[in-house]
Specification:
Chain B: Pfam families: ABC_tran. Chain B: Keywords: ATP-binding, Nucleotide-binding, Sulfate transport, Translocase, Transport. The structure holds two protein chains of two kinds. Chain A has 14 helices and no strands. By secondary structure, chain A is mainly alpha-helical. In chain A, helix 9 (about 155-180) packs across helix 11. Chain B is an alpha+beta fold. Chain B has nine helices and 20 strands. In chain B, the strands form four sheets. Chain B has a six-stranded mixed β-sheet, with helices on both faces. Chain B has a five-stranded antiparallel β-sheet with strand order 13-12-11-14-20. Chain B has a five-stranded antiparallel β-sheet with strand order 15-19-16-17-18, with no helix packed on it. Residues about 360-365 of chain B have low confidence and may be disordered. The chains are: A mainly alpha, B alpha+beta. The interface of A and B includes residues 189, 190, 206 and 289 of A.
C-alpha cells in the first residue's frame, strides 16, 4: 500500500499524482458513487425480502428480460457490424472515407428521441425498410405469421439499441486495427496460410480484446437507453416494456419503493455482467499472450 | 532452387521501383542484394517472393513461370526486418504455424508439429525457449525464431529482408557468421537484402549492387570490391572523393590544374571522373623554401580524430575543389593543423566515364 502513494518521490516530468487522484476520486464520488449509494440507501428501507418480492413480480421480470435480451442482441450485432465498419475505414482508401468516419459518431450527438422517432417511422410496415418485412412481402413471408414486425415490437428495440451503440465498437476496434502489423499477415501468407486462416489465427486474436471492450460498452449503453427505445418499442407491459421505462412508470404512479427496487436489481445485474465481461477480456488477453 | 528473373518492371504510383531487372540465382547460392535505400532491392525480393506483383517481366523457379502462383503456394520462406512474429502465440506455435497451415491431409499431427518446431528451435540455438512469447525474447532471438518459422515449411528458397537491420552492431556480426554456417549446413538458395556493404561482402557468395531500380553490377565479393564496374559501385563500397578530371596523353588534370594529379592513366583522352579513397590521397607538407611545389597544393580546413587515424578536409588551392584524406594518426608530433598547406598526390584510384560516375548516396548506419 505504501508504495502506491509514494509515487511522488520519484522524479517525474509532470508532477501531481496526489492532486489528480484526489480530483478523480471526488469527481467519481459526487457524480457516480453518491447517487448510486442513495439508490441503495433508499432501497434498504424495503429490506431484502421486500426488494426480492418487487423484483420477482411478473411485470418486472418481463421488463428485465426484454432489457437484457435486446441489449445483448444489439451488442452482438454491433460487435460484428462495428468491427466490419472499423475494418473498412482502416484498410481501404475510398472516396468519402473521412465522411463515413465522421458519420460513425452521429449517434453520439443526435438526441436519442429523434433517432427513436425516425426509426419508428421507417421501420413501421408503412416505412421503407419496414415495408420489406411487412405482411405480403417476399421477405416477410419467410417469417411465421407472414410478416416480421419491427417497429413496436422486440426487433424494433434491437434496431434502436444497435443505432446508439455502434460508435462504441468502431471507436475501440479502430485504433487497434490501425496498429496492426501488416507484415504479420504477409508472414502468415508466405507460410501458406489462406485468407480465412490469416484472419482467424493472426488478426482476430489481436482484435478480440478490443472487440470485447466495445461489446461491453455497447451493452452497457444499451441497457441504460431510454429515449430512443420508448418511441419504437410500443411499450406493452410483459412484451416490449424495458426496465428503464418500468422505473419511470413506477415513479409516475408514484411508487418509489418499486422504482428503487428495480433500479437496484438493474444496477447489480449490470455490474455483475460488466465484471464478467472484464474478466473474460483479461482472460483473453492472457490466453492470447498480450503483454 | 534456381531462380531466374527476366526484365522485371514494377512501379509504385508514379515512382519506378524496378526498371528492367535481369538476374539468375543458382541453386544453393547465398546472394546479397545491396544498395542504398530506394534502390529497389526490397521490392525485387518481395516481387520474387510473390508479396508484390510486377507490371512486366517473368520470374522462373527451376524454369517454371510462377506468375500465376500466389505467395501461399510459392513455398518460399520470408524473414522480415522487424521479425513479424505472431505476438499472441508461443514461440513454438510461431515456428509450427506453417505446418499447421498445410492442407488437412498433409498436416502433421500436433505432436509431430511440436517435435518439428522444437527441432528447428534447437537448430537456431533457441532450444528451451519454445514456451515463451515473442515479447519475452531479445531482438536477436526473435529474428532467429523468424528464421526457424520460415525454415519449418521446408522452403525451396529463403528470402531475408534486411534481416539484421534492427539489431545492434555486435549481435549483427554474430548472427551474420551464424547465418553463413546455417546456410552451409542446410543449403537453401538464399537471397538477402542489405544496405550494409560489409555484411554483403562477408556473407554472400555473390553480391548484386542495385541503384535506382536497376542492377549496377553482379559479382563475387572479390570481383565487386577489386573491380567495381562503375563509379557508383566503387563509391558505395567505401568513402570516396569524386573529382571531374580531364585525361590528356595519359596524364590526369583536374579542372585545368597545372600539375597533373596522376601520371600514366590508361584511358583515352577526354573527360572522366576520378574516384579515390581518402586513404589514397597522399599528402606531404609544403616546405616553405620558396621552391615551387612538386604537385597540386591543398589547404587543410579541418582535422578530425578517428579511432586509428586522422581525417582531414582539404581544399585544392588552384580550383577550390574539396577533398577528404585520412592519415595514420598515432604520432602526436607532426600532426597537421587547419591552415597547413600540403602537396597532394593521388595513389590508387579509379577513372570512370563521367555519366556513370555520379556520386552515390551512401546510407549512413
Amino acid at each position: 500500500m505504501a508504495h502506491l502513494f509514494s509515487a511522488g518521490k520519484r522524479f517525474r516530468v509532470l508532477p501531481g499524482f496526489g492532486l489528480t487522484l484526489g480530483l478523480s476520486l471526488s469527481y467519481l464520488g459526487f457524480l457516480v458513487l453518491v447517487p448510486l449509494a442513495a439508490v441503495f440507501l433508499k432501497a434498504s428501507g424495503l429490506g431484502l425480502s421486500g426488494i426480492w418480492d418487487l423484483a420477482t413480480a411478473p411485470r418486472t421480470l418481463a421488463a428485465l428480460k426484454v432489457s437484457f435480451g435486446t441489449s445483448l442482441c444489439a451488442a452482438f450485432v454491433n460487435t460484428v457490424a462495428g468491427t466490419t465498419t472499423a475494418w473498412v475505414l482502416v484498410r481501404y482508401p475510398f472516396p468519402g472515407r473521412r465522411f463515413l468516419d465522421a458519420m460513425v459518431d452521429l449517434p453520439f450527438a443526435l438526441p436519442t428521441a429523434v433517432a427513436g422517432l425516425a426509426l419508428a417511422t421507417l421501420y413501421a410496415p408503412s416505412g421503407f425498410p419496414g415495408s420489406l418485412f411487412a405482411s405480403g412481402s417476399t421477405l416477410g413471408s419467410l417469417f411465421p405469421g407472414g410478416e416480421l414486425k419491427i417497429a413496436y415490437a422486440w426487433p424494433g428495440i434491437v434496431v434502436a439499441l444497435v443505432f446508439i451503440g455502434l460508435p462504441f465498437v468502431v471507436r475501440t476496434v479502430q485504433p487497434v486495427l490501425e496498429d496492426l502489423d501488416r507484415e504479420q499477415e504477409e508472414a502468415a501468407a508466405t507460410l501458406g496460410a489462406g485468407r480465412l486462416r490469416v484472419f482467424t489465427r493472426v488478426i482476430l486474436p489481436v482484435l478480440l480484446p478490443a472487440m470485447l471492450t466495445g461489446f461491453a460498452l455497447a451493452f452497457a449503453r444499451a441497457l441504460g437507453e431510454y429515449g430512443s427505445v420508448i418511441f419504437i418499442a410500443g411499450n406493452r407491459p410483459f412484451q416490449t416494456e424495458i426496465a428503464p421505462l418500468l422505473i419511470v412508470t413506477h415513479l409516475e404512479q408514484p411508487d418509489y419503493p418499486a422504482a428503487t427496487a428495480l433500479a437496484v436489481v438493474m444496477l447489480v445485474m449490470a455490474f455483475a455482467m460488466m465484471l464478467a465481461i472484464n474478466l473474460l477480456q483479461a482472460w483473453t488477453r492472457k490466453r492470447l499472450g498480450h503483454p | 532452387m534456381r531462380i531466374e528473373v527476366e526484365d522485371l518492371h514494377k512501379s509504385f504510383s508514379d515512382y519506378p521501383a524496378l526498371r528492367g531487372v535481369n538476374l539468375c540465382v543458382e541453386d544453393g547460392e547465398l546472394l546479397a542484394l545491396l544498395g542504398p535505400s530506394g534502390s529497389g532491392k526490397t521490392t525485387l525480393l518481395r516481387v520474387i517472393a510473390g508479396l508484390d506483383y510486377p507490371e512486366r517481366g517473368r520470374i522462373l523457379f527451376n524454369g517454371r513461370d510462377v506468375a500465376g502462383v500466389p505467395v501461399q503456394k510459392r513455398g518460399v520462406g520470408f524473414v522480415f526486418q522487424h521479425y513479424a512474429l505472431f505476438r499472441h502465440m508461443r514461440v513454438w506455435k510461431n515456428v509450427a504455424f506453417g505446418l499447421e497451415a498445410r492442407p488437412l491431409f498433409q498436416r502433421p499431427s500436433r505432436a509431430e508439429r511440436h517435435a518439428r518446431a522444437m527441432e528447428l528451435l534447437d537448430l537456431v540455438q533457441l532450444g528451451g525457449l519454445g514456451n515463451r512469447f515473442p515479447g519475452q525474447l531479445s531482438g536477436g532471438q526473435r529474428q532467429r525464431v523468424a528464421l526457424a518459422r520460415a525454415l519449418a515449411i521446408d522452403p525451396a528458397a529463403l528470402f531475408l529482408d534486411e534481416p539484421f537491420g534492427a539489431l545492434d552492431a555486435k549481435v549483427r556480426r554474430e548472427l551474420r557468421r551464424w547465418l553463413r554456417d546455417l546456410h552451409d549446413r542446410t543449403g537453401h538458395t538464399t537471397l538477402f537484402v542489405t544496405h550494409d556493404q560489409e555484411e554483403a561482402l562477408e556473407l554472400a557468395d555473390r553480391v548484386v549492387v542495385m541503384r535506382d531500380g536497376q542492377i549496377e553490377q553482379i559479382g563475387t565479393p572479390e570481383e565487386i570490391f577489386l573491380r567495381p564496374a562503375t563509379g557508383f559501385v566503387y563509391g558505395f563500397l567505401g568513402e570516396t572523393n569524386a573529382l571531374d578530371v580531364q585525361v590528356s596523353g595519359g596524364r590526369v588534370f583536374h579542372d585545368g590544374l597545372e600539375a597533373p594529379l596522376l601520371e600514366g592513366a590508361a584511358r583515352p583522352d577526354g573527360p572522366a571522373r576520378l574516384f579515390v579513397r581518402p586513404a589514397e590521397v597522399l599528402l606531404e607538407p609544403v616546405r616553405e623554401t620558396g621552391a615551387p611545389a612538386s604537385g597540386p597544393v591543398a589547404r587543410v580546413t579541418q582535422v578530425r580524430r578517428r579511432l586509428e587515424s586522422l581525417h582531414l578536409d582539404l581544399v585544392l588551392e588552384a580550383t577550390g575543389a574539396s577533398l577528404e584524406a585520412t592519415i595514420g594518426g598515432a604520432d602526436p608530433a607532426g600532426q597537421p593543423t587547419p591552415g597547413d598547406r600540403m602537396t597532394v598526390r593521388i595513389g590508387e584510384c579509379r577513372l570512370y566515364d563521367p555519366e556513370t560516375g555520379s556520386p552515390p548516396r551512401v546510407e549512413k548506419k
